[in-house]
Amino acid sequence: MLQHLLLLATAMAPVQTSVAAAASAAHAAPHALIHLAPIDIAILAVYLVFVIAIGYITGKGHQTSEDFFLSGRSIPAWITGLAFISANLGALEVMGMATSGYQYGMMTANYYWVGAIPAMVFMGVAMMPFFYGSKVRSVPEFLKKRYNEGARFINAITFAVFTPAISGISMYAMAVVLQDFLGWHFWPSVVVSGLVVLVYTFLGGLTASIYNEVLQFFLIVLGVAPLTIIGLIANHAKAVKHAAAGMHESWLMAATAGWGDFKHWLDTHQVSQGKAMLPGNMWLHTWMGTGHAAGNTLQITWPGVVLGLGFVLSFSYWCTNFLVVQRALAAKDMNSAQRTPLLAAFPKMLFPFIVILPGILAIPLLPHLVTGGTVVHGKIVSDTHTVNNVMPLMMGTYYPAGLLGLGLTALMASFMSGMAGNVTAFNTVVTYDLYGSLINPNASDKHYLWFGRFMTVLGVAISVGFAFWVRGANSIMGYTQTIFGVVNAPLIAVFLLGMFWPRTTPWGGFIGLLVGTGTSVTLWILCMKGHPMAHFYKHGTTSAFWNALWSFCAGASSTVLVSLFTRRQPVEQLTGLVYQVTPRGEASATLAWYRKPLVLGILALLATLILNLLFW
Amino acid sequence: MIDLRLPIGIFFLLVGLLMAGYGVVSPNDIPHIGMKINGNLDWGIVLTIFGLLMTIFGWRGQRRPPEPKNEQPPVH
């Protein structure tokens, strides 16, 4: 989600244009571009039966609210690890990354290799012991334990407001794609997919969500990965089409040859980037030309990438967002909780090859895709041949019936995993941190279980309602996603100081949270209103990275300043919450190397470094 | 609790067999590339093998007693 939020945050104008086109499409009469064969429908039906069956099976043993909200803290690390990635892998991310690949190339992989992996490693090695060890049930609850009720409230209310909204936006985007490509009407797509998610999350709570997220992870990988292979083969076929029509070659040979042909094509062609034409080979580099914003496809500079994206934005998202942290809290023990983000880091670093590369491979294959919709008589009219649709267009072009059903089911799965993740995080925060904390603190566990299920229904209903609202007023889509990203940016300052500086006081954390968030929102508004500062940054991406850094500095400095003048908590209250006063275990000699968080973290960072060097 | 590899394995076994069977009955090449590649048969076999392996591991895991919780303090 972080990746797509940032890309949206940094390119508001084109996004709103495309959103307008999508909204226009949503109102238009459905007209199918792709016709599904019975085999495609059979695959989709098998998937729907399985996700509901998993919800039913996993929900049978639930007796307490902790079973429902935290899976009774009983799940092995490999499952929570894959769910950790999958909850973040909504439809907007899968399709949005292919779009970014088409527009900006491998530079988009910075959102994974710089903007995710280091933060995930830090989360597993350094921060998870405090989240899991303090036995909190949510991130806002950690803020309450470390700081005060005010800090918890700010974090909880922000999360509760934006989470179902983001989920509704994902639902809207998916329904528009289904309408454009399959001719399905908007409202049944939204209502039916919402109902499926509701049934399995209502029945099985977090366990059903996590179990289905793992199924969805494999489905996304195995449903979308052929697109990369076929994209390579299609590039090979394009290069040799005059010589060998109807030739026999294995997948492996044709795909290997396709990589060489594709690189040759990029070396010998210019590709349009906005109004400029840039050398095609820039689309395969992550760092080249980042010395100045005009020298690369994404118009970013390396200090902004390292400090703004690689530190503030990614650490805030991966280390403090309850949507992903909740998966680790469901782990069966401390070691499994620590290994959750670390095991997730390895498949995560390979995802650019599945979701970004098909977009890049589409440049020679689908060369005339446009940004936004087509303008007719001054009005934007729906056009499915836009860069936003590059992934479904590639599937529609190169997947035969059968494989197409698998690919579309994978897109549906990505949408459902994202939505279920949002709904299960929403019901937990509302139940524990708003209802259980402020409205009805002394209710029985059975009552909270009942209330959580009710919140699951409400969360899905709000998401569906928001999807219809976005359909009617599309400009709120870009703004909602951007504001959520902006509000979350400075959170990491308060968490880091709280966990690693015992002198941080409750008032320091609370004021730091307010000042950091306030700074972030103010800077964003100034940039949106065309303040001269925005021109200094030249491009939206650069401003998003630097705004995050300034907000972090504002939040951190105000936390330190207020902490120096307010009363600190007794040391015994900080045990389990702050590094210096928490007892630590020595690395056990009996623990195998692949279970040691530090070893896994170092391996993940080394592998990421190698990927960066390969695509320098 | 059910071993998750079991439903995942059965799911991919079913989908893999469906696709491979469809690839045999209706051997369509991948469109627009002019090559003789039966995508459904080939990818269906890949999914079937993956599903079979997951089912076997899941079935064996289901019969094994659950691992005890590791209550050690965090290791840095």
Please sum up the structure shown.
The complex is a heterodimer of chains A (616) and B (76). With 616 residues, chain A is mainly alpha-helical. Chain A is 72% helix and 2% strand.
Describe this structure in words.
The complex is a heterodimer of chains A (616) and B (76). Chain A is mostly helical. In chain A, 72% of the residues lie in helices and 2% in strands. Chain A has a two-stranded antiparallel ribbon. Chain A has a two-stranded antiparallel sheet with strand order 3-4. In chain A, helix 8 runs antiparallel to helix 26, helix 10 (149-182) crosses helix 11 and helix 10 (149-182) crosses helix 19. Chain A is globular, with a radius of gyration of 24 Å. In chain B, helix 1 (5-25) packs antiparallel against helix 2 (39-63). Chain B is rod-shaped, with a radius of gyration of 19 Å. The two termini of chain B are 30 Å apart. Chain B has helices spanning 5-25, 39-63. At the A-B interface, helix 3, helix 8, helix 11 and helix 15 of A face helix 1 and helix 2 of B.
Keyphrases for this structure?
heterodimer; A: 616 residues; mainly alpha; Sodium/glucose cotransporter; 2 domains; two-stranded antiparallel ribbon; 26 helices; 4 strands; B: 76 residues; 2 helices; rod-shaped
Computed structural class of chain B: mainly alpha
Give the SSE order of chain B as H and E letters: HH
| Assigned CATH architecture of the largest domain in chain A | Up-down Bundle
Give the SSE order of chain A as H and E letters.
HHHHHHHHHHHHEEHHHHEEHHHHHHHHHH
Please give the largest β-sheet of chain B.
Answer: none
Secondary-structure-derived class of chain A: mainly alpha
Distance between the termini of chain B: 30 Å
The low-confidence parts of chain B are none
For the largest beta sheet of chain A, what order do the strands appear in spatially? 1-2
Helical percent range of chain A?
A: over 70%
Oligomer: heterodimer
Mean pLDDT of chain B: 85
Name given to the CATH homologous superfamily of the largest domain in chain A: Sodium/glucose cotransporter
Label the overall shape of chain B: rod-shaped
Question: Please, how many helices of chain A?
Answer: 26
| Most extensive protein-chain contact, per-chain counts | A-B, 63 and 41 residues
Task: Report the end-to-end length of chain A measured between terminal Cα atoms.
Answer: 25 Å
Overall shape of chain A: globular
Number of helices of chain B: 2
